[in-house]
Design goal:
With 48 residues, the protein is mainly α. The chain is 62% helix and 0% strand. It contains 2 helices and no strands. The longest helix has 15 residues.
């Protein structure tokens, strides 16, 4: 009995919680991906 009550409370708390996940951050994440792609396209410079 206590176990089902605990599970129900965990599910209820999870439903109320507003946490931003990394993949849902929109513009901030898009900027990070664009910056990473820009670095990948730079020519590789080798030193002597």
């Amino acid at each position: 009995m206590a176990k089902t009550r605990f599970v129900k409370s965990v599910i209820a708390t999870a439903a109320k919680t507003e946490v931003q996940m990394p993949w849902s951050r929109g513009a901030r994440r898009a900027a990070m991906i664009a910056r990473r792609k820009a670095i990948e396209t730079l020519p590789q410079v080798r030193s002597a």
